[in-house]
């Protein structure tokens, strides 16, 4: 293939509308087969498990507001379907019930971690290549990887190995800002393994554009509902409600410390409540007051508690619907806060809720 042809194929464009203290607001354009799809940044990908949104059918997925245009698949799930797909001939998007989604194929599933450095560049036929930045915790190696990858005709960058390393958070964030400073401005940067709200905001401040959305899935798997507030500009008449909410959140933090669960190999965070707890047995509030998701509009915490303790599969469906919608709403709030120069307020609110 001629370099010019390759360049033509990599026609995805990132247009930045605003950059404030390193945080980038913009749109990725010319996506998809026809080039008419767009994606807002900062944003996240739709997490999928073996090729589909966990617990959800095509129909229930479409009940969720703000579903990202791009879904994340893993190479192993594609490989599993390889023979069937060859037979089917109409493409993986249609096969998994997401014909209109853009697909991003990663080599591994963020919920089943593998050692950093496992990801290597792979060329998938007719696909855009995302360059992977490696180098572990060694600054020199990270910078070399960033500079060398930036020279290649890649469509964007994947920042790998910034999760779960033994280094301190401060060191990781310093590494991250040094790496993004080496990358060209007009190509998107995706980070893998970082999905918790407070960490997402730290990464956005260091020039990261895209995230995976496995955090709402992990919360769902441990029977929890995301309840953290991202309403950084409450209207006066709702202030009282918000204050009550904050008091509740403080209690949740206490609970979290007492009853950390290890299901899904992840500990419960202060951004969620555990609906299996007995105190929700007679709690007739929605998961989050004011939430417009299908679950909150139709069901109560008590009902979800009942579904969870009786191991009904519907619990996973309803929790996933709420948790995805809540999480996608958080990204919407980030973009709005950036637009109106109020990211500091949002960050303050999120950090107050982080334990
Ligand atoms: Zn909801």
From TrEMBL:
The record's free-text note on cofactor binding: Binds 1 zinc ion per subunit.
Q: What is its main location?
A: cytoplasm
What SUPFAM superfamilies does the record tag this protein with? tRNA-guanine transglycosylase (SSF51713)
GO molecular function terms noted in the UniProt entry:
metal ion binding; tRNA-guanosine(34) queuine transglycosylase activity
The record places domain tRNA-guanine(15) transglycosylase-like at 125-353
Task: Detail which positions bind Zn(2+).
Answer: 291, 293, 296, 322
**Gene3D superfamilies assigned to the protein according to its UniProt record, in alphabetical order:** Queuine tRNA-ribosyltransferase-like (3.20.20.105)
Q: Which Pfam families match?
A: TGT
Q: A single GO CC term, please? A: mitochondrial outer membrane
Q: Where in the cell is it found?
A: Cytoplasm; Mitochondrion outer membrane
Q: Name one GO biological process term.
A: tRNA modification
- Cofactors required: Zn(2+)
Membrane-protein topology? Peripheral membrane protein
User: What are the entry keywords?
Assistant: Cytoplasm, Membrane, Metal-binding, Mitochondrion, Mitochondrion outer membrane, tRNA processing, Zinc
State the PANTHER family in the record. QUEUINE TRNA-RIBOSYLTRANSFERASE ACCESSORY SUBUNIT 2
**Quaternary assembly:** Heterodimer of a catalytic subunit QTRT1 and an accessory subunit QTRT2.
Family, per entry: Belongs to the queuine tRNA-ribosyltransferase family. QTRT2 subfamily.
**The protein's role, per its UniProt record:** Non-catalytic subunit of the queuine tRNA-ribosyltransferase (TGT) that catalyzes the base-exchange of a guanine (G) residue with queuine (Q) at position 34 (anticodon wobble position) in tRNAs with GU(N) anticodons (tRNA-Asp, -Asn, -His and -Tyr), resulting in the hypermodified nucleoside queuosine (7-(((4,5-cis-dihydroxy-2-cyclopenten-1-yl)amino)methyl)-7-deazaguanosine).
Identification of the protein by name? Queuine tRNA-ribosyltransferase accessory subunit 2
Q: What is the lineage of its organism?
A: Eukaryota, Metazoa, Chordata, Craniata, Vertebrata
Q: Which gene encodes it?
A: QTRT2
């Amino acid at each position: 293939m001629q370099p010019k042809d390759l360049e033509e194929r990599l026609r995805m464009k990132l247009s930045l509308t605003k950059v404030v203290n390193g945080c980038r607001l913009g749109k990725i354009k010319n996506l998809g087969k026809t080039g008419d799809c767009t994606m807002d940044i900062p944003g996240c990908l739709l997490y999928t498990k073996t090729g589909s949104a966990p617990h959800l059918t095509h129909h229930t997925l479409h009940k969720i507001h703000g579903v990202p245009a791009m879904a994340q698949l893993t190479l192993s799930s594609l490989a599993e379907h390889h023979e069937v797909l060859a037979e089917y001939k109409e493409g993986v998007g249609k096969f998994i019930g997401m014909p209109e989604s853009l697909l991003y194929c990663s080599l591994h599933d963020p919920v089943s971690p593998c050692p950093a450095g496992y990801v290597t560049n792979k060329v998938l036929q007719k696909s855009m290549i995302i360059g992977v930045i490696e180098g572990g915790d060694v600054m020199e190696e990270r910078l070399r990887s960033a500079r060398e990858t930036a020279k290649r005709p890649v469509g964007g960058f994947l920042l790998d190995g910034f999760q779960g390393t033994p280094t301190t958070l401060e060191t990781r964030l310093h590494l991250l800002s040094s790496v993004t400073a080496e990358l060209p401005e007009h190509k998107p940067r995706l980070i893998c393994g970082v999905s918790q709200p407070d960490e997402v905001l730290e990464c956005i401040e260091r020039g990261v554009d895209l995230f995976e959305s496995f955090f709402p899935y992990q919360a769902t798997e441990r029977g929890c509902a995301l309840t953290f507030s991202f309403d950084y500009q409450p209207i006066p008449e709702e202030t009282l409600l918000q204050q009550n909410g904050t008091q509740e959140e403080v209690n949740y933090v206490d609970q979290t410390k007492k009853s950390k669960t290890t299901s899904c190999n992840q500990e419960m965070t202060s951004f969620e409540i555990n609906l299996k707890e007995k105190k929700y047995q007679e709690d007739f509030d929605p998961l989050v007051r004011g939430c417009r998701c299908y679950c909150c509009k139709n069901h109560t915490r008590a009902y979800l508690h009942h579904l969870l303790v009786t191991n009904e599969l519907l619990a996973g469906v309803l929790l996933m619907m709420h948790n995805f919608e809540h999480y996608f709403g958080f990204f919407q709030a980030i973009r709005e806060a950036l637009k109106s120069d109020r990211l500091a307020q949002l960050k303050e609110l999120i950090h107050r809720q982080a334990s």
